[in-house]
Specification:
One of its GO terms (cellular component) is cytosol. InterPro entries: GH, GH_1_N_CS, Glyco_hydro_1, Glyco_hydro_1_AS. Keywords: Glycosidase, Hydrolase. The protein has 477 residues and is of the alpha/beta class. It has a single domain, classed as TIM Barrel (Alpha-Beta Barrel). It has 14 helices and 14 strands. The strands form four sheets. The protein has an eight-stranded parallel barrel with strand order 1-2-3-4-5-7-9-12, surrounded by five helices. A two-stranded parallel sheet has the order 6-8. A hairpin with a 5-residue loop joins β10 and β11. α6 runs parallel beside α8, α8 packs across α11 and α12 runs parallel beside α13.
Length: 477
């Protein structure tokens, strides 16, 4: 608790975030093709299936495809200034490599944008959020194949030409650095992770970075007023002990995460990444990098850096410690921190740390586009007789993190906005469960697929509404 309210800029964008594959459902409606999510129904750690399975919660998800107007009205009731959502690539290009887009898919997002405009909510659109068209994964092995750059350019150009006058903020890829740990989900790479060569993995990284720069170039041609951002997982990495070897281990682990944004922002591959390649017996040319690629990266850097923040981790080279439970980014547990029900360590101060680190490193505006607490919520009857969730634990988590955002702003960091993850309950990306809930809005659906899909306001709904209305001043209460 604090007695002094943090000060947020009057232009601060308060809101929430979701992803198409976790909320839309309607996986086979409107001309949509299959995506990789249709064959990885049990989360990122489980192997893919040969075909869509009937128990895949993502197939119906929370039925945002049919209920988007109702849901956006609830977000507007909270006072959202911004709503981050993604466009499903396979709704626009069902296979991913067609010459012409699917008009029915384009029209769906026209309707979503209509609702945002109706309520005065700024859209923040992610172009590719963990749902590469399945055809691109199976036919080309995803981003290991350079031809995906051209397919992505066509897709991005289609979006900019269709929605460019309606959308200012764009993100090229979701959590692009996660490809190191989840190559199928993040990079559409069909080759099993344990069979994937380092050369192919680094080639996929290069192809995605070039595609991101190409999309940035196209946006500046088609909609020069648009702002293009990258999006990464932000995970502060602390040395487990003061031993210099642990400090060095933490630095090296941090470099693996920072390399992506270094390229996005600075336009060149950092020396530490080139050293990693050399130690694998590789050069940039082995990844298919051309002089034209390097010029594109150099000339079309991003306007801002966005990131997800859920946890911090430790690294050590001196002790034998098991990796943290449930954390796809590796690392070992911090003995000073508590953890969520899914083993993610809770570190509000780490958000201030990473905001300062990123600002000092890149001097680009920052946007926190995911942060939240996944928890098992219990539906109860509220004082007004309506179903609700008394989620004080979520309120405490978000308040503690937002206070640290205010502290970072006081430190001089430029922060554009904050969108909580899963502002309405959705299917978890990491576990494919609905019982891992993040939202201010409870959706009546269970892990076994049962439920009415009715929406109910949680206690945190009114709390966040007041935070937005007071521009953060209520955080001192």
């Amino acid at each position: 608790m604090t007695t002094t309210a943090p000060t947020f800029p009057e232009t601060f964008l308060w809101g929430g975030a979701v992803a198409a594959n976790q909320v839309e459902g309607a996986y086979d409606e409107g001309g949509k093709g299959l995506s990789i999510q249709d064959v990885m129904p049990r989360g990122i750690m489980a192997p893919r299936t040969d075909a869509p399975t009937p128990d895949n919660l993502k197939h119906e998800a929370i039925d945002f495809y049919h209920r988007y107007a109702e849901d956006i009205a609830l977000l507007a009731e909270m006072g959202f200034k911004v709503f981050r959502f993604s466009i499903a690539w396979s709704r626009i290009f069902p296979l991913g490599d067609e010459a012409e887009p699917n008009e029915e898919g384009l029209a769906f997002y026209d309707r979503v944008l209509d609702e945002c405009e109706k309520h005065g909510i700024e859209p923040l659109v992610t172009i590719s959020h963990y749902e590469t068209p399945l055809h691109l994964a199976e036919t080309y092995d995803g981003w290991t194949d350079r031809r995906l750059i051209g397919f992505y350019e066509r897709y991005a150009r289609t979006l900019f030409e269709r929605y460019g006058s309606r959308v200012t903020y764009w993100l090229t890829f979701n959590e692009i650095n996660s490809v190191l740990h989840a190559p199928l989900m993040s990079g559409g790479i069909n080759t099993p992770k344990n069979e994937l060569s380092r050369k192919d993995l680094y080639t996929a990284i290069h192809n995605e970075l070039v595609a991101s720069a190409a999309a940035t170039r196209i946006a500046r041609e088609v909609v020069p007023e648009a702002l293009i951002g990258c999006m990464v997982i932000a995970t502060p990495i602390y040395p487990l002990t003061p031993d210099p070897r642990d400090v060095l281990a933490a630095m090296k682990a941090d470099h693996a995460n920072l390399a992506f944004s270094d390229v996005h922002v600075r336009g060149v591959y950092p020396g530490y990444f080139l050293r990693t390649l050399r130690e694998e017996g590789l050069e940039l040319s082995d990844l298919g990098a051309t002089e034209e690629d390097l010029a594109l990266l150099r000339e079309h850097t991003v306007d801002f850096v966005s990131f997800s923040y859920y946890m911090s981790v430790c690294e050590t080279a001196t002790q034998e410690v098991e990796a943290g439970e449930g954390n796809i980014m590796g690392g070992v547990p911090n003995p000073t921190l508590e953890a969520s029900q899914w083993g993610w360590q809770i570190d509000p101060v780490g958000l201030r740390v990473v905001l300062n680190q990123f600002w000092d490193r890149w001097n680009k505006p920052l946007f926190i586009v995911e942060n939240g607490l996944g928890a098992r919520d219990e539906l109860v009857t509220g004082p007004d007789g309506e179903p609700t969730v008394v989620d004080d634990y979520r309120i405490d988590y978000l308040r503690d993190h937002l206070i640290q955002v205010g502290e970072a702003i006081a430190d001089g960091v430029t922060v554009l906005g904050y969108t909580t993850w899963g502002c309405i309950d959705c299917v978890s990306a990491s576990t494919a469960q609905l019982s891992k809930r993040y939202g201010f809005i409870y959706v009546d659906r269970n892990d076994d697929g049962s439920g009415t899909l009715e929406r109910y306001r949680k206690k945190s709904f009114d709390w966040y509404k007041e935070v937005i209305a007071s521009n953060g001043a209520s955080l001192a209460d």
